[in-house]
Amino acid sequence: MRHPMKELPLVEDYGEGFQGRQVEWGGMIVSFETFPKGVDATPPFKGLPGDSSQSPHWGYILKGLVRVKQPGGDELPRAGDVYHLAPGHVPVFEEDTEILEFSPATECRVTIEVVDRNMAEMHAAE
């Protein structure tokens, strides 16, 4: 299977350049995501165990810089880096960022459901 990365189906659009395009293949979610500088996943992850992502991710930073808060200390993957994130992380986007990411669908959906609910509540409060 193949698909142009920037034409994956749009499934998350939180405005201001914060978007997620995704497809599920073979039990994995393949996503192309864009985040504007300053997005901190702390509020959207609220309510998850440890208020952090419950899914592992493997990916490639196409553009930007991400501070990944995790129990063993922060990491700073940047454009050109490949990465693996274990469950229990929170990203903070230090620059406008584009990533290509692969995540197990079952675990990723747990995080996505909470993020979607929290983002809807945050937008309703505006």
Describe this structure in words.
The chain is an alpha+beta fold. It has a single domain (7-125), classed as Jelly Rolls, CATH 2.60.120. 17% of the residues lie in helices and 37% in strands. It contains one helix and eight strands.
Shape: globular
The CATH architecture would be Sandwich
Query: In percent, how helical is the residue content?
Result: 10-25%
Q: How far apart, in Å, are the first and last alpha carbons?
A: 41 Å
> Mean pLDDT score, rounded?
93
Instruction: Enumerate the strands of the largest sheet in spatial order, edge to edge or round the barrel.
Output: 1-2-3-8-4-6
The major sheet is characterized as: 6 strands, antiparallel
Number of discrete helical segments: 1
Write a concise keyword list for the protein shown above:
17% helix; alpha+beta; six-stranded antiparallel β-sheet; 126 residues
Would you spell out the secondary-structure blueprint of this structure?
Blueprint: E1 10-13, E2 19-25, E3 28-35, E4 57-63, E5 66-69, E6 82-85, E7 90-93, E8 97-104, H1 105-125
Antiparallel strand pairs: 1-2, 2-3, 3-8, 4-6, 4-8, 5-7
